[in-house]
């Protein structure tokens, strides 16, 4: 009998409050290898909070978080391992005073014993992957918003070869196409898909987005979050057809319905 496939990310009864506001209420979740999952729902429902918990930037109030089979005990700040998770923020969050190459290779310059030449080679390879070869000496201010996002993607997929990458990258995208024109959005969306097809770069991803084109082009599965709970979980195709009142209202943008 073949071994059952293990989830790459698992939440067991995860709860998180901020002040008196319950954001996640006993959430269970499993994400499997190869999955492209959209985390959607109205503003302020805890979508980014889920990403921050997976990334190890936040330890939930209660519940278990298992990433690559390893139970997270504390946050990265408290010494927890990153466990092969790359986070692409809504704002590209590049350091303006550093070149593109210094931005992309930032963790390698800081944490590895690699020579500058070796780091530069990895940086160039990643810039090539995101379709921006040869821009390593430029500064972020000289780039368009779409290019900055691609540079931050190149940074998110950096792997330190000294650490004998134990885990394949889980990529977490927080509104990666927000504020981009439709063509720049499509470019990022294809890239997100492309990186998942590159086995050594990305094993699965979670993407938070409000943009329908991004939902269409980058997700196969949707998790709909509202009122602290996953209210709906299924294929993207089924989500669009669903008669669930929350999904119907969300996709139609109607002001009438359960979403206040
Ligand atoms: N560190 C924090 N301290 C206090 N409140 C927080 C903190 N982080 C998030 N929150 C609150 O938790 C709620 C959920 O935030 P989160 O960013 O996860 O929502 P979201 O679904 O990603 O929203 P959006 O779609 O607007 O980006 C919000 O009300 C937010 O103000």
Automatic annotation (TrEMBL):
<protein>
    <submittedName>
        <fullName>ABC transporter</fullName>
    </submittedName>
</protein>
<dbReference type="InterPro" id="IPR003593">
    <property type="entry name" value="AAA+_ATPase"/>
</dbReference>
<feature type="domain" description="ABC transporter">
    <location>
        <begin position="9"/>
        <end position="252"/>
    </location>
</feature>
<dbReference type="Pfam" id="PF00005">
    <property type="entry name" value="ABC_tran"/>
</dbReference>
<dbReference type="InterPro" id="IPR003439">
    <property type="entry name" value="ABC_transporter-like_ATP-bd"/>
</dbReference>
<dbReference type="InterPro" id="IPR017871">
    <property type="entry name" value="ABC_transporter-like_CS"/>
</dbReference>
<dbReference type="InterPro" id="IPR027417">
    <property type="entry name" value="P-loop_NTPase"/>
</dbReference>
<keyword id="KW-0813">Transport</keyword>
<keyword id="KW-0547">Nucleotide-binding</keyword>
<dbReference type="GO" id="GO:0005524">
    <property type="term" value="F:ATP binding"/>
</dbReference>
<keyword id="KW-0067">ATP-binding</keyword>
<dbReference type="GO" id="GO:0016887">
    <property type="term" value="F:ATP hydrolysis activity"/>
</dbReference>
């Amino acid at each position: 009998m073949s071994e059952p496939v293990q989830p790459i990310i698992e939440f067991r009864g995860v709860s998180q409050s901020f002040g008196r506001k319950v954001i996640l209420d006993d959430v269970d979740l499993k994400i499997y290898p190869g999955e492209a999952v959209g985390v959607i729902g109205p503003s302020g429902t805890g979508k980014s909070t889920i990403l921050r918990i997976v990334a190890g930037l936040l330890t939930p109030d209660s519940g278990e978080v298992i990433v690559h089979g390893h139970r997270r005990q504390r946050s990265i700040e408290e010494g927890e391992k990153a466990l092969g998770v790359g986070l692409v923020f809504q704002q590209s969050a590049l350091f303006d005073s550093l070149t593109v190459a210094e931005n992309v290779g930032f963790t390698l310059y800081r944490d590895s014993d690699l020579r500058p030449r070796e780091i530069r080679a990895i940086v160039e390879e990643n810039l090539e992957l995101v379709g921006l070869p040869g821009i390593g000496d430029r500064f972020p201010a000289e780039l368009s918003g779409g290019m900055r996002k691609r540079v931050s993607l190149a940074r998110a997929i950096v792997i330190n070869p000294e650490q004998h990458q134990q885990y394949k990258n889980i990529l977490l995208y927080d509104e990666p196409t927000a504020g981009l024109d439709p063509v720049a959005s499509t470019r990022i969306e294809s890239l997100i898909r492309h990186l998942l097809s590159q086995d050594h770069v990305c094993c699965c991803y979670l993407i938070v987005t409000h943009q329908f084109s991004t939902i269409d082009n980058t997700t196969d599965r949707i998790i709909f979050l509202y009122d602290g709970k996953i209210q709906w979980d299924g294929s993207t195709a089924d989500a669009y057809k669903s008669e669930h009142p929350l999904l119907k209202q969300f996709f139609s943008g109607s002001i009438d319905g359960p979403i206040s």
